[in-house]
């Protein structure tokens, strides 16, 4: 069977659908139309239907979408039913915040290990997990089933550490370092460049004030 291409734009909207549908479930909503979901998400109803058609549709004409069913199906697509073991590489302010983030366990992400080079934090615990020396990282990955590595180290350290992580067997990297990693096509990398996001916000604000461009991007 041939593979079906799903655009990055569609993939980028799936977590938003999942989040909004989760909120609807919490409010005991049983069904919703694409038009109603469109108003909530500020995405056209046509775009919503096109997105869902990539995965088989999910809706019924004249009924709309069953919220619980759609939430479950999108959850399957996103892989939330699977359990993922995660290591944090870097235990500074950002790494510490990620270690304490309460939604990770709810979504099946378990922080299994935390690593740093700073002797002031090595041996301390973050959310019940001891911070280990960075030179123990590769052995830890080999001896444990680690699916994802979250990198929060300075840019001049990120590439070298990413290579060690990949060589040890990790196939997915959540990169918070301000550098694009070169790790090969067989490794999934999700870059979270905070400055890029802030600059996009700055552009939208400037565009709104000037009226020169459509800032709703």
Automatic annotation (TrEMBL):
Going by the UniProt record, its keywords in alphabetical order are: Cytoplasm, DNA-binding, NAD, Repressor, Transcription, Transcription regulation
One Pfam family linked to the record:
CoA_binding
Q: Which residues bind DNA?
A: 16-55
Ranges of residues in domain CoA-binding: 79-180
**Top-level taxon:** Bacteria
GO molecular function terms listed in the Swiss-Prot or TrEMBL record? DNA binding; DNA-binding transcription factor activity
Q: Which GO terms describe its biological process?
A: negative regulation of DNA-templated transcription; response to redox state
Q: Its GO CC terms?
A: cytoplasm
Record-listed NAD(+) binding positions? 90-95
Classification via PANTHER family: REDOX-SENSING TRANSCRIPTIONAL REPRESSOR REX, REDOX-SENSING TRANSCRIPTIONAL REPRESSOR REX 1
Q: What does this protein do?
A: Modulates transcription in response to changes in cellular NADH/NAD(+) redox state.
Q: What is said about its interaction partners and assembly?
A: Homodimer.
Question: What family, per the record?
Answer: Belongs to the transcriptional regulatory Rex family.
What is the designated name of this protein?
Answer: Redox-sensing transcriptional repressor Rex
Protein's organism: Parasporobacterium paucivorans DSM 15970
Q: Which gene encodes it?
A: rex
């Amino acid at each position: 069977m041939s593979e079906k291409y799903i655009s990055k734009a569609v993939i980028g909207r799936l977590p938003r659908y999942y989040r909004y549908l989760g909120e609807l479930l919490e409010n005991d909503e049983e069904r919703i139309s694409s038009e109603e979901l469109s108003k909530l998400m500020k995405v056209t109803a046509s775009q919503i239907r096109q997105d869902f058609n990539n995965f088989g549709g999910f809706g019924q004409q004249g009924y709309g979408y069953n919220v619980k069913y759609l939430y479950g199906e999108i959850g399957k697509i996103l892989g939330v039913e699977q359990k993922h073991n995660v290591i944090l590489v870097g235990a500074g302010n950002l790494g510490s915040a990620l270690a304490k983030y309460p939604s990770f366990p709810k979504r099946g992400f378990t922080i299994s290990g935390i690593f740093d080079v700073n002797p002031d934090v090595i041996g301390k615990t973050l959310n019940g997990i001891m911070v280990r020396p960075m030179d123990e990282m590769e052995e830890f990955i080999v001896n444990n089933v680690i699916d994802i590595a979250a990198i929060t180290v300075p840019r001049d350290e990120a590439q070298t550490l990413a290579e060690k992580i990949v060589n040890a067997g990790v196939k997915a990297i959540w990169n918070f370092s301000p550098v694009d990693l070169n790790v090969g096509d067989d490794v999934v990398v999700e870059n979270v460049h905070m400055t890029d996001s802030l600059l996009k916000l700055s552009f939208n604000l400037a565009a709104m004030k000037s009226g020169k461009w459509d800032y709703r991007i």
